[in-house]
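Components:
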Amino acid sequence: MRRQITKKIIAVALAVLLVLCTSLTASAMSHSGVEFNISGATFKYGTTAGDVNTAVEVRPSGAEYSDPRPQLSFSNSVSDASCSLWYVNGSSVLSKYWVVNIPFNISTSETYGTLKLNTTLGYEDNTYRFVSSSFNGMFTFDNPTEPLGTFEIVNDETARIVYTGKLPTSGYLQFKIFQLVSFDIMILTTIMTYEAMDPLDREEEKAEGSGNDSIDGITNAVPDVDFGGLESGVKSLANAMSYNGTDCVWLFPSLKIPAIKNVTPEVTLSSPKSVDLGAEVRKMPTAALSIIQACCSIGIVLFVVYELYSFIIFCFTLRNNQAGKDEESDD
Amino acid sequence: MSDVVKWGLLVVGIVAIIAMILAFGFLEYINVSLVIEGIETLLYYSGSALKSARGLINNFFFPPAYPIVSFAIYWILIKPFATISVKVLVSIYHYIFK
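Structure:
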């Protein structure tokens, strides 16, 4: 008897937990925005506010700007030795292989998760580029000359990337660009003049660096998996679930006969067409559509009530739709 | 056996299983990033398709019912995981408090 009660209490607690998780997930997935604050960052060799303000741009990188990796361009020349990324805890300086954990943190200060950019490599003497395998070869930019955004230092502990570019028109590109620019850096780029450092500090730094190398050796042995993109994909799916519009546009690609060399050029049979199936439905007689809507609305309510009831019964009995019968025998 | 010992044994068992899986070293031969990226792309296209489908479905409901439809779709997707979670949790508690 006591076991029965315990089991039921656990089941109820789990159900409550599931509902909480569901609601929290739903609320976390319903945001969008283009301005991103950076909090929790630490400037070790503090570039003060305004020093690199507007001097750093977040741009698509690559010669033809076909490379989606964002890069930071400094107005002044910055050598490898004088540009470092620091962990928030201030313990690590990695010169060529910087592991950057970038949590999504939109201006509403709600945390989305973690997007991990694998490395940052010096591209030119004044440009540093974030590199992530997730971004490689994904898309091209519509307007390659336009910066994606600016990297602004607000104060010693805060900076932000403000998106200023124009989003490409394609949905997938929008998605990737959003993913690309909607990050929040807890580790900041700081410009430090290595040569100007105190020799003692330099020694200390070197010792700290070698210690960190050991730690990194161990850390790198563990497979580095980037789940940021996966999270964005799930968000995309979740956003689709909560879509409240009635448009249903399907894009049919153009039909072409490919060119045959020295015989015939490419022949376009039809241009791309978008068909709104929702508009076709709305062409139905209003009365008939209303009846269908009423029936479907009542049906969905009944379905949800039935499903919830079934799940609660399942939690208590571990059997589907059979209240009062316990699957397991109690000894 | 006391409950604490049982919990300890359970944790040790889980850690041992994870260590065993990692010890196989198969992750070295799988490009996990590419797999994740593939799943991500699939999810994105699924989202696009679901959005279009959802737009069509919405035409057959009154607007106040849209949130309920959202919940129903969400529930259909997570129901298997919720069911399995309950079963796993009950199994663990059954083992502990047997």
